């Protein structure tokens, strides 16, 4: 199985991907720092059974079995869930990872939101080049080390793999959203793929093997992830990945417990009798991975499967990267080039953020809605077809296909 799922990047592959990118524009439609959601602690407005929170407290609902107790989530999948989001940086085997998780309701009161400094993902030799006044920052609607909500759960798990020259928080808005709706979300910096290694031209990796490490550690939580013991459900797991990360999850449908795969700007998923759902997301104007890859991936995947294509979006639509700037309004590539970060010109080739692209809020809401819908359908057994009417609700979905079992 490991050989079947092998995905090894190299310098030649990286250069090839840059050639595919062509003259990808470095400008973005919306300036400003990434807005990845408000503060946690909002209450549910409706649950899977149609119940409604009253008296300021979120209603409760059942998960996929009688022993899974959850808070009811809003019916609109793009709406933030009832949990405040906790965040912890952990070591998982040899990997540095971030865990976002449902925290005790109200535990975020008076706490300071987490800020991620994107200099932390540069090679060690480059970190000191960008001054504090010019640092690009990610603001998270999450809070460091909040107590996990042990009164509910066990929670389904989502593992995310970033793309080439990405890093564990690259799609923060979406991972934070999933955690607010009752998922424990884990994302690591993948050696040989993440930004620091890409800038060092050290592009040799084995994404499936590293993902196996994460799944194994979550299956028997100890060390930094011991706080998850008895609070996660490894029989209800989803994997999501962007670009190369989406290719990295392609063969995981046969892995025990994995029920949902979500490749973004990548392709499809290998058919498996145990895989319950595949959601394929693509940008119709992607210059790095052409949208044809998504339509072919959809054709090659097995039902239940959906394809959601976003109009007027480039390769980075399911990330925060186009919209993160410093206080001077410079995006991450402009900042890196100004301060002489090595090989920043190579990263520019993957920075597919077309001018005038779909507004950040619109792209974020579509991705949040589609991904949360796919995850909740199979991992929390939320009733009904959560994709019904999605194209009418979001006119910027230029392509939608669905094939159910």
The CATH architecture classification is 3-Layer(aba) Sandwich
Share of residues in strands: 15-25%
Total DSSP E strands: 14
Uncertain runs with pLDDT below 50, 5 residues or more? 1-55
Fold topology:
Blueprint: H1 11-21, E1 34-35, E2 60-62, E3 69-71, E4 85-92, E5 95-102, E6 113-117, E7 137-144, E8 155-161, H2 172-180, E9 184-188, H3 195-199, H4 207-219, E10 232-242, H5 244-248, E11 258-264, E12 277-283, H6 291-300, E13 305-310, H7 332-338, H8 344-348, H9 360-379, H10 390-393, E14 397-403
Parallel strand pairs: 1-7, 4-7, 8-9, 8-10, 10-11, 11-12, 12-13
Antiparallel strand pairs: 2-3, 4-5, 5-9, 6-7, 13-14
Account of the 3D structure:
This protein has a single domain, classed as 3-Layer(aba) Sandwich (Rossmann fold). Helices cover 22% and strands 21% of the residues. The strands form 2 sheets. Strands 1, 4, 5, 6, 7, 8, 9, 10, 11, 12, 13 and 14 form a 12-stranded mixed β-sheet that branches. The protein has a two-stranded antiparallel sheet with strand order 2-3. The N terminus is likely disordered.
Describe the structure concisely for a colleague.
The protein has 405 residues and is of the alpha/beta class.
Descriptive key words:
single chain, 405 residues, alpha/beta, 12-stranded mixed beta sheet, two-stranded antiparallel ribbon, 14 strands
